Amino acid sequence: MKKVKLGEVCEILSGYAFKSSQFNDNKIGLPLIRIRDVERGFSDTYFEGTYPEEYLIKNGDLLITMDGSFILKKWEGDLALLNQRVCKIKITDKSVDEGYISWLIPKFLKEIEDKTPFVTVKHLSVAKIKDISFVLPNKLEQKLIAKKLNTISQIYDFRKIQSEKFNELVKSRFNEMFGDPLNNNKKFAVKTGQQCFKFSSGKFLDKHDRVFEGYPAYGGNGIAWKSRKYLIDNPTIIIGRVGAYCGNVRTTHGKVWISDNAIYIKEFKNSDFNLVFLLELMKVIDFSKFADFSGQPKITQKPLENQKYILPPLALQNEFADFVALVDKSQLAIQKSLEELETLKKSLMQEYFG
Questions:
Q1: So what's the pLDDT on residue 118?
Q2: What does the alpha-carbon distance between residue 130 and residue 111 come to, in Å, rounded to a whole number?
Q3: Which residues sit opposite 189 in a β-bridge?
Q4: What are phi and psi of 47, to 5 degrees?
Q5: Is residue 38 within 8 Å of residue 71, measured between CB atoms?
Q6: Which of 14, 55, 11, 12 minimizes the C-alpha distance to 32?
Q7: Within 13 A of 145's CA, how many CA atoms are on the CB side?
């Protein structure tokens, strides 16, 4: 076991400054890997012209973004060209395992990112990458470490897919039972939001009332703080009012605070709805389509009041809610597994890489 610097065991190639006048989005030439393309794994910008061969990237090459968030990803987007502010890592020492390096580098990149001062965007230099210092065990041990972490990652990804499939199952069941609520192809009774609900905006939460332990305080996209006091003490639906996620919906139960970044159902004017059904109905309607993007994205109560809502028989809504409860039980088990896997991964990362 020895201590080395990344620059001693790897070659680092910084991207080339290709001329933007030769860029196109008509798929002429080769894809050009820019910062945003590393994470998503593909590029829709192409370069038409000659290029130095060393900047040709193949599947499996390790890339690092050098502006904004510093991330390492294995490229799987086929032949492409390496643009500036992205670099390629190539192992030159046979005693180094690529899988081990792929787990080790991101930890150090995050530490560099956290310590890097910035005015607008954080920048990473090749010199700093080369200067990353770490303990290098023998190659067999490296492979065993990488295999263990890869297994945890694969199980984690599988659990995420399971969770997504359960979400799709709920959507499918809703469609099967209630059809398309926008055209009401199952001919259920219909009422407007104004006939069914009294909407209200939340209230501003003073910074002195924001605490570490207290009641959940909802903003425009879920719980934003904890509060000394609560605004409501009954089950309801909260709708994001401002921000990039305005129009998102969620249920809440018990004592909570709702900030002025959200709208909520203050009063149900009748007993037409099961809350679980109503939540899924509102998701399908998709309130984000009511957003005004002239400034900061926002929605108002008016379109929610004017919107028509289907009213299937309550027994049918309750049947759907029972189905969702079964799915939620499975989702809870998956979430518990995800949390345990994440804890295990962090523990092993600390053990292996410090």
A1: 84
A2: 14
A3: 311
A4: -120, 125
A5: yes
A6: 55
A7: 23
Report the DSSP pairing between strands 255-258 and 232-233: antiparallel
293 pLDDT higher than 90 = no
Going by C-alpha positions, the residue among 111, 143, 103 that lies closest to residue 349 is 103
pLDDT digits (tens, 9 = 90+) for 75-119: 999 999 999 999 999 999 999 999 999 999 999 999 999 999 887
**1 and 135 in contact (C-beta within 8 Å)?**
yes
Instruction: Report CA 310 to chain centroid distance, whole Å.
Output: 31
Query: How many CB atoms lie under 10 A from the CB of residue 190?
Result: 12
Q: Which helix (H) or strand (E) holds 14?
A: strand 10-14
273 contact partners, CB below 8 Å, separation of at least 6: 196, 309, 311, 317
Q: What is the DSSP letter of 22?
A: G
From CA 308, how far away is CA 191, in angstroms rounded? 6
Return d(Cα 303, Cα 339) in angstroms, integer. 39
Q: What is d(CA 7, CA 115) in angstroms, rounded to the nearest whole number?
A: 20
Please tell me the distance from the alpha carbon of residue 154 to that of residue 185, in angstroms, as a whole number: 42
d(CA 353, CA 347): 10
Contact 263, 202 (CB under 8 A): yes
